[in-house]
Specification:
Blueprint lengths: L5 H10 L7 H9 L2 E6 L10 H9 L6 H14 L10 E7 H4 L7 H15 L4 E6 L13 E5 L5 E7 L2 E5 L2 H17 L3 H15 L1
Parallel strand pairs: 1-2, 2-3
Antiparallel strand pairs: 1-4, 4-5, 5-6
Helix pairs in contact: 1-2, 3-4, 6-8
């Protein structure tokens, strides 16, 4: 039987004319054995609560309520990878300022989201690492990215931008993303220290 690699899934999705720019990455995400995610501005989609995700999606004034509902359902469905029999190892690095976004109107929202994030971080298949605010400028502030490793050991990357996203599967591109991952991961706190920080932060939102 032919081994199905992440790159093969990406090319298959593109060949079959999937309607969304995100579909090729979704196939890679579902097939991954390990996911590495860096997010300097938002909670990663796989760790978002429904209320937080809805608020993020509604921030795009070009989306109708119907579109928001459809995208929200899709985002929540993606989180099912953590409840499957063999979930991927998910490692997330998040900038501390994501946890401290200000605004009285989001106080309850953030308290719920960070509590959920702590719960996720305590699962065996999920690690959350926080880059503390005192780190200041670092290479990750150039933008978010995700890396997926398949059963064959190969990597595929994904870059988000204002117009959608871009799949990265070239040798040079992946080498750059893997190097930047090591850089931001080295700036982050340990798993235990990150959970302790999140517990302190959530009290400021309660």
């Amino acid at each position: 039987m032919r081994r199905i690699t992440l790159v093969y899934l990406l090319k298959l999705a593109e060949r079959d004319g999937q309607p969304s720019w995100f579909r090729p990455w979704l196939d890679a995400e579902r097939a991954a054995q390990q996911l590495r995610c860096f997010q300097p501005t938002l909670i990663p989609g796989l760790l978002q609560t429904e209320n937080y995700a809805r608020a993020v999606l509604r921030g795009d004034e070009m989306l109708s309520e119907e579109s928001v509902g459809r995208l929200l359902a899709g985002r929540m469905d993606r989180q099912a990878i953590f409840t499957q029999s063999d979930p991927p190892q998910f490692v997330a690095v998040i900038d501390e300022m994501v946890l401290r976004r200000t605004g009285e109107e989001i106080r309850g929202l953030m308290a719920e989201q960070i509590t959920h994030l702590i719960s996720c971080a305590e699962q065996p298949c999920v690690s959350v690492h926080i880059v503390p605010a005192e780190v200041g400028l670092h290479v990750g502030l150039s933008g978010p990215f995700v890396l997926a490793r398949g059963a064959d050991g190969g990597w595929v990357g994904h870059l988000e931008n204002q117009l959608g996203g871009t799949v990265v599967d070239t040798e040079d591109g992946l080498a750059t993303l893997l190097a930047r991952w090591e850089s931001v991961r080295n700036e982050a706190l340990s798993r235990r220290q990150s959970i302790e920080l999140m517990k302190r932060v959530v009290t400021t939102w309660s």
